[in-house]
Design goal:
The chain has about 750 residues and is an alpha+beta fold. Helices cover about 50% and strands about 20% of the residues. It comes from Marilutibacter chinensis.
Length: about 750
């Protein structure tokens, strides 16, 4: 069938009405205008939300910077309180210093501060006096470290609380460290509180977070000094506080959801020195931050550049997702509106095209029907409600032997010699459940000739308005086909009789062969038993009268009778394989092979034999017959590989030619020439002499018969002194008929 859309397009051609062109332009204009309005409104709302979120983020960063600044000022207040203690007392005792530190409650109010201490300013000439004063005061030996001669020293005298790390820091000369020295010198010369750059706090292990030190200078007599030189002359020491940067910043920043990454760089000397960083690095972050803001903090002689990165846009601007939804809705509404306008403009053109197409379809349908009637090889006739012929094609005229025009008005039933269904009653019926098609084979009278058999197909069809047409009849001449079917039936009956006769002959032949096999075995066994018995008596009673050659001949006679008996047993076994009924079922070949190997090992020990059996070998077949199959193949493999230093047998499964799975039994024994592989499965065919390997030549023939009875196949590969491989295929599941499918 042709595509209606394509037919409409072909019918329209390039002659489109001007109104349709204007409709397309209008639809395009509506789409462009609505999209511009949608995108403009969305861009305005997005910019507004972005600016609001950025303003909120900047306010948060300012609050964080202010909190850090305020906390540093609190630290300065604590240090200046300690300096005031030195102004009221010439030199506070360690107990007084401890009382002051405990009164400040450092652990609760300032958890990031690791201690509150005092370091003395001591020229080199005054260092021995200080050590004597320290010892005379009962504080023990003051060991100043690191050792070395310096112009000035800044040893730690007090450091509270007295933790093991703080106690170990007493005597440490902070002037020996460059970073500490610079901060202490600035505080001494400026008379203001100064902070050091990032340093490694004493007692912390390698890799620990950096720390900072805050210094407040102390002068003699608390005088207000104007020049750096005067301050150096009046310098007594410093009250200082070491604190950890990471703990200090994290306790100040808190869990701020808008800040994903926060870093501090010390730019006091022009070069950015990392002080603190939190969150993922800029390279490791999967998404870019929505905002980045920098705040510069100048405090205590240091210049800190703090950089804040916000979370990605999806979290920093939470209402942005709603804006995207609104944008998608606006785009959809714009497309829908333009589609409606375009559909309305297109409706008129399609209506005219459909009307024109329906008229053309009616004309072509009528032409196709007339052509089919005229040139069809099958006879056709239109019938009215009375069963009379309204119109007939030439093929029907040839079948009945009349001109088609002369059939008009003829009762269709009058053309047949036999009785058939009442077409008049069937054509008049209009029940919903009635058959719309009737088929029948009738015998038709042909003018001036023998009757013909025709296959009738009658169908109800409507006629044109005002026309009495109720049905269409097709008449196909099947005379030759019926005659051919009759001849085929007669031939089938003859063939059935022949098959039955041949079946009876085969049954009789099988019975005669079975009787012959049993009679032969019985008739042969009797003389064999006589030969064996008399030869045994001859050997026992008259053996001493025979020479060595005679006894050897007698032994050969007895051995020949034994082989003959074994051959008779093998023939009977092979004949039973063709008659025994198969009871198929699932069989575990791996377990069956292990049992066969154990039985063969029990009969004859092979201590050096290695047997490898693949697990999970399963097939569908008769278990006793498959056991016989494996027993023959494994027995042959053991027999032909027994002479090897390390005999080895492998039983497994692989994909064979054509993708069919095959089981195999492989050995590393004597092997055989590949060109003689076809003789292996013939009865009594042997490729090795009886003196090399014993046997009757029946085992592999039995194996082939078992495999073929299961619907499989078997083949062999080998080479002389290179071992042999026997491949055989078996069904791995029940056939469809046996499964009840």
């Amino acid at each position: 069938m042709s595509d209606p859309g394509a037919r409409l397009q072909a019918a329209s051609g390039d002659d489109r009405p001007m109104s349709l062109r204007r409709g397309h332009v209008l639809a395009l204009g509506v789409l462009v205008f609505s999209l511009l309005v949608t995108f403009g409104a969305w861009e305005y709302a997005r910019e507004k939300e972005t600016r609001a979120a950025e303003t909120e983020f900047v306010a948060i960063t300012s609050d964080v910077a202010g909190a850090i600044d305020a906390r540093l000022e609190n630290y300065e207040i604590v240090l200046k309180g300690g300096a005031a203690l030195f102004a009221s007392v010439d030199r506070p005792t360690p107990l007084q210093w401890q009382a002051y530190a405990e009164g400040m409650r450092l652990g609760g109010r300032f958890p990031s501060m690791s201690g509150l201490g005092y370091a003395a300013y001591v020229p080199h000439s005054r260092l021995p006096d200080l050590q004597l004063e320290w010892k005379d005061a009962g504080y023990g030996l003051l060991d100043v470290f690191p050792r070395g001669t310096r112009r000035f020293y800044g040893p730690v005298l007090y450091l509270e609380p007295r933790t093991p790390v703080n106690v170990a820091a007493v005597g440490y000369d902070m002037m020996s460290d460059a970073a500490r020295h610079r901060a202490m010198s600035r505080a001494m010369e400026s008379g203001t509180t100064q902070m050091s750059g990032p340093v490694h706090l004493l007692g912390d292990p390698e890799g620990s977070p950096p720390g900072l030190l805050l210094y407040v200078p102390i002068y003699r007599n608390g005088a207000i000094l104007r020049t750096p030189a005067a301050r150096r002359d009046a310098m007594r020491g410093w009250v200082y506080a070491p604190f950890y940067v990471d703990h200090f910043v994290e306790s100040t920043l808190g869990a701020e959801p808008m800040v994903r990454r926060f870093s501090i760089h010390d730019v006091s000397q022009g070069k950015a020195v990392p002080v603190y960083a939190s969150g993922p690095s800029a390279e490791a972050a999967e998404e870019q931050p929505a905002f980045v803001h920098q705040v510069v903090l100048e405090q205590f002689g240091r210049r800190w550049q703090m950089e804040f990165e916000s979370v990605p846009s999806g979290r920093a601007i939470p209402r942005l997702r709603n804006l995207y939804s609104a944008l998608a809705l606006g785009i959809f509404a714009s497309i829908l509106l333009s589609t409606i306008v375009w559909a309305l403009a297109r409706t008129e053109r399609r209506a005219r095209q459909i009307a024109r197409l329906m008229t053309e379809d009616y004309k072509r349908s009528e032409e196709r029907f007339r052509t089919a009637m005229q040139y069809s090889a099958i006879g056709k006739a239109l019938l009215d409600s009375d069963g009379s012929i309204v119109e007939a094609n030439p093929a029907l005229g040839r079948i009945v032997g009349l001109e088609p025009g002369s059939l008009a008005g003829v009762d269709f039933e009058s053309l047949f010699e036999d009785e058939g269904p009442d077409l008049k009653e069937w054509l008049a019926g209009d029940e919903p459940g009635a058959d719309l098609v009737k088929r029948a084979t009738r015998r038709l009278h042909r003018a001036g000739d023998l009757p013909r058999h025709v296959q009738l197909t009658c169908a109800r069809i409507p006629g044109n308005i005002g026309q009495d047409v109720r049905g269409l009849v097709q008449a196909e001449d099947v005379t030759e086909r019926i005659l051919a079917e009759a001849r085929v039936h007669a031939l089938n009956r003859t063939l059935e009789a022949r098959v039955m006769a041949r079946t009876r002959e085969l049954s009789q032949a099988n019975q005669e062969l079975e009787s012959f096999a049993y009679s032969i075995s019985h008739d042969l066994r009797a003389p064999l038993r006589a030969i064996d018995g008399f030869s045994r008596v001859l050997a026992e009673q008259y053996g001493d009268r025979l020479n060595d050659a005679g006894r050897a001949y007698l032994g050969r006679v007895r051995a020949a009778t034994g082989r003959m008996a074994d051959l008779i047993d093998a023939l009977l076994t092979m004949s039973r394989l063709s008659r025994v009924a198969i009871n198929p079922g699932p069989v575990d070949l791996s377990q069956l092979a292990r049992e066969v190997v154990d039985e063969l090992q029990a009969d004859e020990q092979h201590p050096r034999l290695q047997v490898e059996i693949a697990p999970g070998l399963r097939a569908w077949g008769d278990a006793p017959l498959l056991r016989n199959l494996l027993s023959n193949l494994i027995g042959n493999a053991i027999k032909f590989s027994a002479g090897r230093e390390a005999p080895r047998i492998e039983i497994g499964r692989r994909s064979g030619p054509g993708g069919v799975d095959e089981f195999f039994v492989r050995d590393n024994g004597a092997g055989f020439p590949q060109e003689y592989a076809g003789k292996l499965f013939r009865p009594f065919q042997r490729l090795h002499g009886q003196d090399e390997f014993a046997g009757h030549g029946i085992g592999l023939a039995s194996v082939k018969r078992i495999v073929e009875r299961h619907g499989g196949s078997i083949r062999a590969e080998g080479r002389v002194d290179g071992g042999a491989i026997f491949y055989f295929s078996l069904p791995d599941e029940a056939p469809a008929a046996e499964d009840g499918v």
